[in-house]
Specification:
This protein is an alpha+beta fold. It folds into 2 domains: 151 residues, 2-Layer Sandwich (Beta-Lactamase), CATH 3.30.450.40; 153 residues, Reverse transcriptase/Diguanylate cyclase domain (Alpha-Beta Plaits, 2-Layer Sandwich). It has 10 helices and 12 strands. The chain has a 5-stranded mixed sheet with strand order 2-1-5-4-3. Strands 7-8-6-11-12 form a 5-stranded mixed sheet, with helices on both faces. The protein has a two-stranded antiparallel sheet with strand order 9-10. Strand 9 and strand 10 form a beta hairpin. The protein is elongated and about 105 Å long.
């Protein structure tokens, strides 16, 4: 007679299978967590090893979204003194991440998103509540808003958006996000300090505009970009007329005052894409990217008239009439100029020709 298996003996293989299935599931979760941990470690190292503010922002606003499969990443920085914007304006980088970088001058703009605990806020996406943080958002369903804090003060908010309603939920743990926020905060603050240190060495101490060292770095970059993009690049060489007589007749303090005022007037005329620098003494230089000869001449004439038609007050209560001479040279497809040296030499020769022709004028290089 065949023996009928007991329910106990049939249950054992099922228990083994169930246990194995649970073990496999736990192993998959462990492996997935290990992959996430390694991914974050790699990301954290890239943040810590970033070279400058531009590279750091590229990592945060481009690589972060791709690496962590997010729909949207934006960064809101508290910038009441326009410090970050000034540092970025001095860069030639015009990366696509700029549209995801936001600024505010008001502390309250950031405060409103966080409680007293200053912890990451995870929630459903609200077009009304989150429009400032995600101005270009489309079809977001959930968001995480991370407070960026240094020395117990807000410096901004890192904002993560997903089209999945389950990606960020209010009851999720935020320890990982808190750590991420701390790393990003430290990296942004360090990058800001480093950029300021670099800027100190690249600014003219008298006028506050870029110095010769800065210009020497930028002109090579601009010439390379112009040739690569087959775009015109104009250079204005500016020399104040009879500047020595100001120092001789009114003193060096008056001369310094004039130089500072000239630099300010030039800066007021410049576009954000232009490069202005004090070349040395009473000489200034301006690079006009993607600017043809006609437009460059119009800008040069505007500069000349602005200086010549408005007197310069000095400390003695007097006002001085100042003029300047401008040499214009450019690189474009039809130009014989191809190198930085050729461009600067041509502009220098042109300003000399303007002096010989009577000063207070703009002269084209041949």
């Amino acid at each position: 007679m065949d023996r009928i298996p007991s329910s106990k003996s049939t249950q054992l293989p099922q228990d083994v299978d169930n246990t194995q299935a649970k073990l496999d599931a736990l192993l998959r979760i462990a492996k997935l967590n290990e992959q996430k941990h390694n991914n974050f470690q790699e990301y954290e190292l890239s943040l810590l090893n970033s070279n400058g503010l531009n590279q750091l922002l590229t990592i945060i606003l481009e690589q972060h979204r791709e690496r962590f499969n997010l729909s949207e990443v934006t960064l809101l920085l508290l910038d009441p003194e326009y410090e970050f914007r000034r540092l970025l304006d001095n860069s030639v980088d015009v990366s696509s991440w700029r549209q995801h970088l936001l600024f505010t001058e008001e502390q309250q703009t950031i405060n409103q998103y966080f409680s007293v605990l200053r912890k990451p806020r995870l929630s459903k996406y609200s077009p009304h509540s989150h429009r400032i943080l995600f101005p270009n958002a489309k079809s977001l369903k959930s968001v995480a808003i991370l407070p960026l804090i240094r020395q117990n003060k807000f410096i901004g908010a890192l904002n993560l958006g997903s089209r999945s309603p389950n990606r960020f939920q209010t009851d999720m743990g935020t320890q990982f996000l808190q750590h991420l926020a701390a790393v990003v905060s430290a990296c942004i603050d360090n990058a800001r300090l480093q950029e300021n240190i670099k800027q100190v060495g690249l600014l003219d101490p008298l006028t506050g505009i870029n110095n010769r060292r800065f210009f020497d770095q930028r002109v090579d970059e601009e010439v390379t970009l112009a040739r690569r993009n087959k775009a015109p690049l104009s250079c204005l060489f500016i020399d104040l007329d009879h500047f020595k007589s100001i120092n001789d007749n009114h003193g060096h303090q008056a001369g310094d005052s004039v130089l500072k005022e000239v630099a300010q007037r030039l800066a007021d005329i410049m576009r954000t894409t232009d490069v202005l620098a004090r070349f040395g003494g009473e000489e200034f230089v301006i690079l006009l990217s993607n600017t043809n000869r006609m437009v460059a001449y119009e800008i040069a004439e505007r500069i000349r008239k602005t200086i010549a038609e408005t007197p310069f007050p000095i400390s003695t209560g007097q006002s001085l009439s100042i003029t300047l001479s401008i040499g214009l040279a450019m690189i474009d497809l039809g130009s014989s100029l191809n190198t930085t040296k050729q461009l600067l030499n041509a502009a220098d020769q042109a300003v000399y020709a303007a002096k010989v022709a009577g000063r207070n004028r703009v002269h084209h290089a041949n």
